[in-house]
Amino acid sequence: MSTPSTIPDLAALLADDFDFKFVGEGAANIIFEIIQSQEPDPLLHDKLLRVPKARAIALDYLHVQEYWESSVRPLFQDGDLVNQVLVHLGACSAKQNLIISRMQAAVSSVEPTRRKDFRGSTVGETEYAMLVDDMRAARSNIKGGGGFEILLEFKPKWLTQSPDAPANAIRCRNCAKEWLRYHDKLQKKLQKPPKLQQSFTPDDKLQRRQTQKALPLPVLCTIDLLNSSSCIKARERVLSRLTDPSPTSRSTVALTNAIPEGSRQWRLLSRWLEGNSLLKRLELAQRANDDPEHLDRNGRGKRKRGGCLTALVGQENPELDLAMTLRDCTCFLRIPGPPGPPPLERAGAGGPAEEDDDDDDEQGEAAATEQDVEEESVEVEAKLGDLDKKNGAAKLATWQALERRLIDEGFYTKRRPRAEWTCALERTDEDEDED
Ligand SMILES: [Zn+2]
């Protein structure tokens, strides 16, 4: 862990002509791109700046970083995580005041386009900011290939079943939670008074069916995600979810561009799902923290799987906090684009390399072979981010209430008459026989 005295000063790293561009924000943080006309300091190379918002309810960055370095990073290999380093922000020099005011100006310039509930929030007066790897899609990628990358973000969530789930569960934690979310949205929508043009509909069942149709469906069974390495059908289901840019997938998936089935980027993603070891490491880390040595109330050692329902309010639950932190991370995938210049610049030169045509002459075959060879050497870049410590003391009651609902209202266990999707736990072996 860097000690405060060794943390670099942002003002000293920036050239005199610096400025900031707003990139994005969450409830507690804002992300900026650093703009400079000259070559940046090596520490700033390919980095974005993350700054806390004023009055945000979150741990301070010194503790966030300390936790990430001591508890999260040791669970992974080099290159698995979106790297983050602290920089000093808070001393009262003229340049540092300028840094804050330019960040605030960058936020103000996009005010009308911000999410409604985020408007008006400002950069906090804080001692530390954080430099994080820039995972945005680039025009060309570092590991060869050139062309346009696609950035795919998704939340793997619970890669193992909840330790609190009933033994007769037919749904994984993710599918159970997605069904609950769908159920609540449906109820809310049905309680709204019908719009004027619908007010002539006499049939409640019809209205219910129409509402069900209009609601987005849940997205990703993460048991399928893990099984993607060995089961072709699971991989196909995951691919169809991850490459769907429609709003129905947006609760856990974000995509900069559509990935057409069979395209080069689709094949690269499929290969990553089949061969990656990153999700396995994440699963093992989640599992390890679900199954710590628990002590019973008399202080005797007792091996017991621990979920949030076995945690005691008012006590430290470090394993649970870490498991919940690992369940809320984001997986960033940068998928290299087709080789050569961007499609627009190639217009008239034969179209995109990934497009198949029916031309099976020798030249066509030779080109395909070259493309295959080139594709072999290109890889998806995958990293996990958003791994700030969860504040279990503040959240335990919420986690427990949600888990209770999932159990008590049957979201883990009830069969549905007309299921729009099925969880991997719900499927029979016969469904997967072909694999
Ligand atoms: Zn599932």
TrEMBL record:
Enzyme's top EC category: transferase
EC numbers for this chain: 2.7.1.158
Biased composition (Acidic residues): 353-364
Keywords: ATP-binding, Kinase, Nucleotide-binding, Transferase
Protein role: Has kinase activity and phosphorylates inositol-1,3,4,5,6-pentakisphosphate (Ins(1,3,4,5,6)P5) to produce 1,2,3,4,5,6-hexakisphosphate (InsP6), also known as phytate. Phosphorylates Ins(1,3,4,5,6)P5 at position 2 to form Ins(1,2,3,4,5,6)P6 (InsP6 or phytate).
Family, similarity comment: Belongs to the IPK1 type 1 family.
Comment block on domains: The EXKPK motif is conserved in inositol-pentakisphosphate 2-kinases of both family 1 and 2.
Protein name as catalogued: Inositol-pentakisphosphate 2-kinase
